[in-house]
């Protein structure tokens, strides 16, 4: 399995990028994969180099030879369909679990929409004097409801679907890790905490850990979660 | 092989097949019978005009599974999406909520993938088989969410949720500009093409078209986007789209022409 014709543009800490990277690592394709880590603050995702492959100037942007695939879930499907072998499959080949993995994979976006966008992005883009405590309080409650769905979905198991690490975990884990990075402790969500800790230890996750997260901690915006 | 309709016999249709092989007649009847019968253990909860619901409904219709499918049209106004039947299998209390026998599959894209994988025949595939075209279809399926976020959520829902007296012209102007940029992107992608990917209707179109139809419903004329307008007209005429057209849209136009600027 050869990654020499691949190229991935990615940003450190970006959930969608991390999904693609974990998948590559699970297939043994991350090591030596041609790639470029772009700087969001320097707007390197809005350069011609990225625009050539992705008119939206977003990451992840991915190429495998002449095939260009953007959108993180599309990259996951492409890698799964073209680079899987027994031992590294992330999608059950048949049966009800396959459909369940699809459901959780696409459901994962809710963590971005209902928590990250509503609380973290809100915090970053709103001047301190304009931040509304009432809005934040309401959104924290909704965030807890969202985490409650995932706590319930896990039902004390090791993985989101069945007994193996699947694309369902690839899709949701990076967002959960981002919440932890932003100060969440998951003290009201014990199954989710245990899950986070276990998946964090996975080699593919360690191999693709956001570089700047190793440099130190950040503002604990989500301390209440 | 030429097929002509003779008459309906309950759950399956007798077709005259002009072909030398008796076996192929039997196989065709068996296939049609299987198709006609295999939606009875399904159930779909859906809402009229909901794009996420419309996507799997189009797929079901494309597979010949929409007709006779057990389903319930829920009312958004009465918050029926939080009824106990739905909550029992979808804690989020959202539609579409779907089951096929004992298997529950929620999330519109997951239902589409499930149906595509389980119920496709050579004639009704919605996913190309070559890796490059296939991955492009996947790319477009997920990229379509930008229309939802940048046009519907950002602009249409701003009008829904903001009282007239609180609406800010500058904010609207900015949102209209973002929406137009988004539509320009798809105009470019569709120029000179009948479908989003390749020469056939695929899941990319299934996942994109409903949002365009929704924009048109809310007053968008798409006059600045001729390729998009042509695409809208073409796909609208498709039997699976007509068969699943939001019922309340047939009752008359809406008063809420929030997207007339598009």
Order of helices and strands of chain A: EHEHEEHHHHHHH
The percentage helix of chain B is: 40-55%
Q: Report strand order across the widest sheet of chain B.
A: 4-3-5-6
Q: Overall pLDDT of chain A, averaged?
A: 96
Rg from alpha-carbon coordinates of chain B: 20 Å
Sequence stretches where pLDDT stays below 50 over 5 or more residues of chain A: none
Helix content of chain A: 40-55%
| Number of strand segments of chain B | 6
Largest sheet descriptor of chain A: 4 strands, mixed
Distance between the termini of chain B: 47 Å
CA radius of gyration of chain A: 18 Å
What's the pLDDT, averaged over the residues of chain B? 88
Q: Globular, elongated, flat, extended or rod-shaped: what is the shape of chain A?
A: globular
Oligomer: heterodimer
Side-by-side strand order of the widest sheet of chain A:
2-1-3-4
Structural class, judged by helices and strands of chain A?
alpha+beta
Please outline the major beta sheet of chain B.
Answer: 4 strands, mixed
Structural class of chain B: alpha+beta
The total of helices of chain A stands at 9
How would you describe the overall organization of this protein?
- The complex is a heterodimer of chains A (225) and B (262).
- The mean pLDDT of chain A is 96.
- With 225 residues, chain A is α+β, with helices and mostly antiparallel strands.
- In chain A, 49% of the residues lie in helices and 8% in strands.
- Chain A is globular, with a radius of gyration of 18 Å.
- Chain A starts with 5 loop residues before the first strand and ends in an 18-residue tail after the last helix.
- Chain B is of the alpha+beta class and 262 residues long.
- Chain B is built from eleven helices and six strands.
- Chain B has a four-stranded mixed β-sheet, with helices on one face.
- In chain B, α2 links the parallel β3 (42-47) and β4.
- Mean pLDDT of chain B is 88; it is low at 1-27.
- Chains A and B meet through β4, α3 and α4 of A and β6, α4 and α5 of B.
């Amino acid at each position: 399995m050869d990654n020499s014709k691949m190229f991935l543009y990615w940003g450190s800490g970006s959930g969608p990028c991390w999904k693609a990277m974990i998948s590559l690592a699970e297939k043994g394709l991350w090591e030596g994969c041609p790639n470029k880590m772009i700087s969001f603050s320097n707007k390197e995702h809005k350069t011609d180099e990225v625009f050539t492959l992705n008119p939206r100037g977003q990451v992840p942007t991915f190429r495998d030879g002449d095939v260009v695939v953007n959108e993180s879930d599309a990259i996951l499907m492409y890698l799964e369909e073209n680079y899987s072998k027994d031992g590294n499959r992330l999608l059950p080949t048949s049966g009800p679990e396959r459909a369940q993995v699809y459901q959780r994979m696409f459901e994962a976006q809710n963590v971005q929409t209902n928590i990250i966008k509503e609380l973290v992005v809100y915090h970053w883009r709103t001047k301190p004097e304009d931040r509304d405590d009432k809005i934040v309080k309401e959104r924290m409650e909704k965030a807890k409801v969202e985490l409650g769905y995932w706590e319930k979905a896990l039902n004390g198991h090791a993985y989101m679907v069945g007994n193996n690490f699947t694309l369902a975990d690839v899709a949701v884990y990076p967002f959960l890790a981002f919440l932890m990075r932003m100060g969440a402790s998951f003290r009201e969500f014990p199954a989710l905490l245990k899950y986070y800790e276990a998946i964090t230890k996975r080699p593919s996750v360690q191999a693709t850990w956001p570089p700047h997260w190793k440099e130190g901690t950040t503002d604990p915006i989500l301390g209440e979660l | 092989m030429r097929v002509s309709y003779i008459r309906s016999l309950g759950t399956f249709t007798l077709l005259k097949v002009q072909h030398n092989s008796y076996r192929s007649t039997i196989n065709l009847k068996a296939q049609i019978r299987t198709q006609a019968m295999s939606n009875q253990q399904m159930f779909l909860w859906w809402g009229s005009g909901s794009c996420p619901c419309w996507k799997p409904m189009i797929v079901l219709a494309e597979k010949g599974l929409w007709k006779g499918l057990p389903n319930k049209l829920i009312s958004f106004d009465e918050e029926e999406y939080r009824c106990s039947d739905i909550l029992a299998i979808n804690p989020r209390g959202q539609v579409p909520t779907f089951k096929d026998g004992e298997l529950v599959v929620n999330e519109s894209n997951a239902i589409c993938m499930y149906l595509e994988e389980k119920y496709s025949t050579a004639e009704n595939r919605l996913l190309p088989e070559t890796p490059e075209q296939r991955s492009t279809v996947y790319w477009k399926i997920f990229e379509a969410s930008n229309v939802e976020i940048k046009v519907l959520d950002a602009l249409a829902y701003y009008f829904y949720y903001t009282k007239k007296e609180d609406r800010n012209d500058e904010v609207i102007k900015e949102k209209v500009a973002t929406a137009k940029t988004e539509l320009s992107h798809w105009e470019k992608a569709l120029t000179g093409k009948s479908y989003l990917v390749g020469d056939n209707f695929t899941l990319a179109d299934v996942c994109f078209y409903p949002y365009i139809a929704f924009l048109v419903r809310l007053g968008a004329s798409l006059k600045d986007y001729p390729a998009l307008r042509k695409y809208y007209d073409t796909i609208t005429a498709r039997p699976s789209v007509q068969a699943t057209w939001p019922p309340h849209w047939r009752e008359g136009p809406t008063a809420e022409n929030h997207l007339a600027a598009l």
